[in-house]
Write a structure and sequence with these properties.
Elements (H helix, E strand, L loop, with lengths): L2 E3 L5 E8 L2 E7 L3 H4 L9 E12 L2 E13 L1
Parallel strand pairs: 3-5
Antiparallel strand pairs: 1-2, 2-3, 4-5
Length: about 70
């Protein structure tokens, strides 16, 4: 479920499945890397930084994307 987010929709939020665990991924200012290129079910290799997402008083771990390669 790939979603373009932010005021001007320049950011991307999606989930990846890694070792049977669903992980939240955020990609800041990377819309052009995803638009019309990545679709649900694609296998990818990603480089990321683990960060804490704080929103509306809630905190959860997320992966902040640095780079992606679609297989």
């Amino acid at each position: 479920n790939i979603k373009f987010i932010g005021k001007e929709a320049h950011h991307v939020r999606f989930n990846v499945l890694q070792k049977n665990a669903l992980k939240d991924v955020i990609a800041f200012n990377m819309r052009s890397a995803f638009e019309n290129k990545l679709k649900d079910g694609d296998q990818v290799d990603i480089i990321y930084e683990v960060t804490v997402n704080e929103w509306s008083g809630n905190e959860n771990l997320q992966l902040k994307l640095t780079d992606i390669a679609i297989r």
